[in-house]
Amino acid sequence: MQPNPILRKLGFAADDRVVIIHADDVGMCHASLAAFAELAEFGLVSSGATMTPCPWFPAVAAYCREHPAVDMGVHLTLNSEWDHYRWGPVSTRDPASGLLDAEGYLWRSPTEVWAHADAAAGSAELAAQVEQALSAGIAATHIDTHMGTIAHPKFIFGYLDLARRHGLPAMIPRWDEAGWRAWGYDAEIAVQAAAAVRGLEEEGAPLVDAVIGLDLGTSDDRIARARAVLGGLPRGLTHFIIHPAQDTPELRAITPDWRSRVADYEAFMSDELAAFVRDSGLHVIGYRALAGK
Prior knowledge:
The structure is a single chain. By secondary structure, this protein is of the alpha/beta class. It has one domain: Alpha-Beta Barrel (TIM Barrel), CATH 3.20.20. The chain has helices spanning 5-9, 30-42, 57-66, 110-116, 119-135, 156-166, 177-183, 187-202, 222-231, 249-254, 258-267, 271-279, 287-291, and strands at 17-26, 47-50, 72-76, 143-145, 210-213, 236-242, 283-284. Strands 1, 2, 3, 4, 5, 6 and 7 form a seven-stranded parallel β-sheet that branches.
């Protein structure tokens, strides 16, 4: 694959290793917002994205209005995965949309969303979430996806059109047909997806070369794990995902992986990891640079 054209546009060499250190799930609960606010001030985390259907989204919007330079995108959300802490769509309560499970919330898993959701209703929901963020005063820097749910033929083209319509970078890899087939698309859809992504790039839209993150399955040795992954990043532009949150009773009640989320927060607030990144040769940027804002 040819070098990413956004690198030269931003003043980097083709073989530079450039990374967006990105906090997912901001506003999923209070602990995620509190962690992001501290991390943004500390400076190692360069971007985040908020989930507009979640209960703490209004607090995220208030934070962004108070900190207009913050790099915050919209973490487009079509599923609601936890057992006892749920959210629904912002665009509709109509069961015919296919967005709602039997309890009236978004489906728990991406596979359930793919099986049940109407494609048009899903695209309308994504558009409504972006509009909600913008209307709340968030100067959104990009869009991305919660648990990869939009990366399905039902939704991927609407996602790319949404990015184009709002002039926002979309977190999506610069995959060719082989890359989309490896993701699971059939040959025909892979051709269409690769062409759509190529078209965006030809229009000048910034895209990432890789999407990599820290596994939430273990909280042990988080700094060492982060160093290993960051130290091994490929050349090009990488979207690097963490899920930071402060340790609170609410977080512990929501998710069994709370230890890993707290470990992300603590690791990326550490002087040790900040020094490693500073000395590693990595170039850390945010989506605001890609958006030209």
